[in-house]
Amino acid sequence: MSNAEVNLLNNVRIVLVNPQHPGNIGMAARAMKNMGLSQLYLVNPKDFPSKEALYRASRADDVVEAAIIKNSLKEAVSDCSLVLGTSTRERIMSQTILNPREAALKITTVFQQEKTAIVFGCETFGLVNEDLELCQFQITIPSIKRYSSLNLASAVQVICYELRMSCLEKEIQSEKISRTTPLASAAELDGFYNHLKQTMIHIDFLNPECPRKMMERFRQIFNRALLDQEDVNLLRGMLSAIEKNR
Amino acid sequence: MSNAEVNLLNNVRIVLVNPQHPGNIGMAARAMKNMGLSQLYLVNPKDFPSKEALYRASRADDVVEAAIIKNSLKEAVSDCSLVLGTSTRERIMSQTILNPREAALKITTVFQQEKTAIVFGCETFGLVNEDLELCQFQITIPSIKRYSSLNLASAVQVICYELRMSCLEKEIQSEKISRTTPLASAAELDGFYNHLKQTMIHIDFLNPECPRKMMERFRQIFNRALLDQEDVNLLRGMLSAIEKNR
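The joint structure predicted for all components is written out below.
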């Protein structure tokens, strides 16, 4: 595990305030564990401990069983340096509103060494103002206006996903293509295109008088594919088989 | 609504293959609607129509009721130019693996005008190889290795969230790959791959007893190239010329 992942596991807690349905507690625990979080705090859960919560947790029952129960949000976040409250409502309180990605960036960079709480309100009406006052930032998941309320566990999933993405970001390159074989060199590509051209002429598909346009189309296709050495070997093998079969 | 949001609503479908629990169908519909998607396709759902699905959908029952049922994944994606399959397993097939953000970027920029399908396998074992073969790209949600399997609706939530984030970002920046020709549909690609296979068998390049591995390599190359209709015409023209010349 990277340092960021260890910090995520140890320093970031998910706090559910007054969860009404134990199934949501279980599903939130599963969402957390999938993304490498483990610390679940429950403030006055309506129905807990609960078999339904364990069932819905799938194999994240360890997270459910280790959940810490508190009587108030204040108690649940008292040792945290950073407290963020999720809300679909726009700016009820005065905090800066972050989207999940901005929040994750803040948590995993600025506050890496600090205990952090991400707070979710109850299913029916979210966080009340008194709870939001304990939060330094508000997180709003950018749902559509006419239908903005996510399922509680789904909201936890989105936030935990962004936290994990933020942790992994250094390792993730944009559109990574995992390859074990080196990409073909310019000389290898040139060899392939010459071979392709000769074969296309031999099977009368390419007019040797004006080969340019078709070869350009072929280049466009294969250049987009970013051929590696094995790809070139396969394609040249095919060309040889075509020649042999004439 | 911005253009990107309209495209998301009209052009991007979520396909659930063999969903076992109707509750997950309902929750997936809710996740979709929260993020501005509406097109739900179900391939051989185990228990549908279902009251449980409607109940779990909350107020996204319109999405559930408009769901289109198909007998095979092939039918569900035949008119799509871009088909992406979600899988937690690493590189079973040959596709490029994208994380949800990369996939969303691809869908909302390159494929703005094209029909796109995002495919999710059943709860217990995900997508089978036969289904993954119909996908040009694989999406993997970066969960932790020891506990990688997300709840089905949670996985849908993460992907739909990234699509919406991508749409909202598009209003700020636009990165377009200009194409004048429409991309090849799944059916057109399928026709090309079948033609390629037959031709490779005819010229003794492919052993018809075990065609799988080599065809996978070919798919890997051409899927990366994102073929448009003219590309497919050119390549099939080449295959016909090969056949004629034998």
